[in-house]
Amino acid sequence: MSKSATKEGTTRYAQRFAGRAAEGHFREAQRLVLSSLGIGTYLGQPDAKTDEGYAAGAVAAVESGINVMDAAINYRFQRSERSIGAAVRQLAAKAFEREEFVVCTKGGYLTPDGAMPGDPNEYFFREYIQPGVFAAKDIAAGSHCMTPKFLKNQLGRSLKNLGVECVDVYYLHNPETQLSEVSKEDFLNRVREAFTFLESAVEAGEIQYYGSFPVRAGAVQPGDDGSADAGQSIAARASSNGDGGGERAGHYVDRQRFAAARSSGEESATICLGGARA
């Protein structure tokens, strides 16, 4: 059995809904067949009732023709990822194979585990600073980190939470958060180092594709100190540097084009792979 989504598996999934799904609901992008709608897991209380609701919702979505599930490690203190993990197990029992659906998650924000600890500073010191996962200087805005060591730690936790061997799309979560505290040059260097790590995770089979999730991208103009041009600069820096360049840069997914490919169905919205179209 495949440990990640595949073209064959997602094509087979779409065929389950032949004659039932609306025309154009399923579209090919990133060498996968994706539903035009996905299910997200952002909001809600960090409690068992919400956990069960998200898991049931994800199962119902996949049973109804939606094969894209999205989470982030910080959503509801890691509980949203665990809800997706519960859904993945339930779907396996219902004869849906792992290669039929796409699992996406994100890393970058600091998060507790399951609930807010009584002393957050003590928790993060014990869990992260003391073991050397990150240093205080690596944190921006009091909540964001994207060092390779931190991302490695977070990816490992996400894989366990989701109960999968490979995340299909892993996003660097709101990297522009750091622009308020570091220079643009330092910012791009930090992102290049993060992407170099993510390339190594691709090679290790822990993720299929990676990209950035710039929430502010649509709210700023290219050239501003926001993230609109930063995404392009990030991709260029990652693909031009020897540590993350060459063929390996082909695993980069442009978040905006990924969304467009799922929503428009037009050839012009195909995904950017390290600056190339595919």
Could you explain the architecture of this structure?
This protein is of the alpha/beta class. It has one domain: TIM Barrel (Alpha-Beta Barrel). It contains eight helices and nine strands. It has helices at 7-15, 48-63, 79-93, 120-129, 148-162, 184-203, 228-240, 255-263, and strands at 26-29, 32-35, 68-70, 102-107, 167-173, 207-213, 252-253, 272-273, 276-277. Strands 3-4-5-6-7 form a five-stranded parallel β-sheet. Strands 1-2 form a two-stranded antiparallel ribbon. A two-stranded antiparallel sheet has the order 8-9. Helix 7 (228-240) links the parallel strand 6 (207-213) and strand 7 (252-253). Helix 3 (79-93) packs across helix 5 and helix 6 crosses helix 7. It is globular. The relative contact order is 0.12.
Keywords:
alpha/beta, TIM Barrel, 5-stranded parallel sheet, two-stranded antiparallel sheet, 9 strands, disordered C terminus
Write the layout of secondary structure elements.
Layout: H1 7-15, E1 26-29, E2 32-35, H2 48-63, E3 68-70, H3 79-93, E4 102-107, H4 120-129, H5 148-162, E5 167-173, H6 184-203, E6 207-213, H7 228-240, E7 252-253, H8 255-263, E8 272-273, E9 276-277
Parallel strand pairs: 3-4, 4-5, 5-6, 6-7
Antiparallel strand pairs: 1-2, 8-9
